[in-house]
Design goal:
The protein has helices spanning 33-36, 40-54, 67-77, 108-114, 206-216, 237-246, 250-260; strands at residues 12-15, 25-28, 61-64, 97-104, 124-130, 143-144, 164-167, 174-176, 219-226, 229-235. With 261 residues, the protein is α/β, with parallel strands linked by helices.
Length: 261
């Protein structure tokens, strides 16, 4: 499978370490696997390669490591040869897992699955691609079912003008600036050339929302952890909905309107 069409020529991905002891490093080129597999020929090539590999591990249960490979993994598993198990003779046991990854770079995502308590010893990992810039494994080289092939080298940009694509934490996706690439608009685009903000996207403007939080006593102090983020102040959503429902307030109306969609 040629990855040239889906790798931006002048873009690099900055891998953010998932543990402080690891060093940051960049890779040349990024494959948008979800977009690449929309093409029928690419999907079928990847499907056949995975199925051939899965047949080498008939006693292993498949375990996709991210959303990018979940669908094609289960699809390739349908036609896989599996040994028959006589439940009356064979004692039940936890099967070893074959953890399926998309594009190997650091292997951290797959390692998290292999370290899970429900994944027994002797489980293995397999990737669709092994990126040429991937970190060298400390033990054996992981299996990849397809070769990463590009017909031309990606030019290096030393001017600093090329945007840096970073991993969005806890996901297999990247964006410019990492999680900062996730934009949540609060106002509609300006109606005139003045550049002034237009109406709020939501039923309540940001100022009205802050007033609601204050009136309902919705803010609380504590320590909450979301991935790599730590919050000191958070919102008591349960209290907001409970109190807003008493008088059919804006928060309750928005919730019911959203659910009914």
């Amino acid at each position: 499978m040629n990855t040239e069409e889906t790798i931006p020529d002048a873009e690099t991905e900055k891998i953010i370490p998932e543990a402080e002891k690891e060093e940051e490093f960049c890779i040349d080129g990024y494959l948008d696997l979800s977009r690449a597999l929309v093409d029928v020929d690419r999907y079928q090539a990847c499907h056949r390669a995975l199925r051939r590999c899965f047949n080498l591990f008939p006693d292993f249960d498949l375990l996709p490591s991210d959303d990018l490979v979940q669908s094609i993994t289960f699809d390739a598993d349908h036609d896989r040869h599996r040994p028959r198990v006589n439940t009356q003779v064979d004692s039940p046991r936890i099967r070893r897992k074959l953890v399926v990854g998309s594009v190997r770079v650091t292997s951290n995502t797959v390692k998290r699955f292999l370290d899970r308590s429900d994944v027994p010893d002797g489980s293995r990992e397999v990737f669709i691609f092994n990126h040429p810039c991937a970190a060298k494994p400390t033990e054996r080289m992981p299996i990849s079912v397809l070769d990463w092939v590009t017909s031309k080298p990606i030019p290096q940009d030393t001017s600093g003008a090329t945007p840096i694509y970073e991993r969005i934490p806890e996901t297999p996706y990247i964006g410019i600036g990492g999680e900062k690439a996730i934009i949540i608009p609060r106002f509609r685009p300006p109606d005139t050339d003045s550049g002034a903000l237009s109406d709020s996207f939501y039923e309540r403007s940001p100022q009205q929302t802050y007033d609601d939080f204050h009136k309902l006593g919705a803010l609380k102090f504590g320590h909450w952890v979301y991935g790599n983020k730590h919050d000191l102040i958070t919102i008591n959503l349960g209290r907001i909905i409970e109190l807003s429902a008493l008088d059919n307030g804006p928060s309750y109306r928005w919730l019911m309107k959203t659910i009914n969609k």
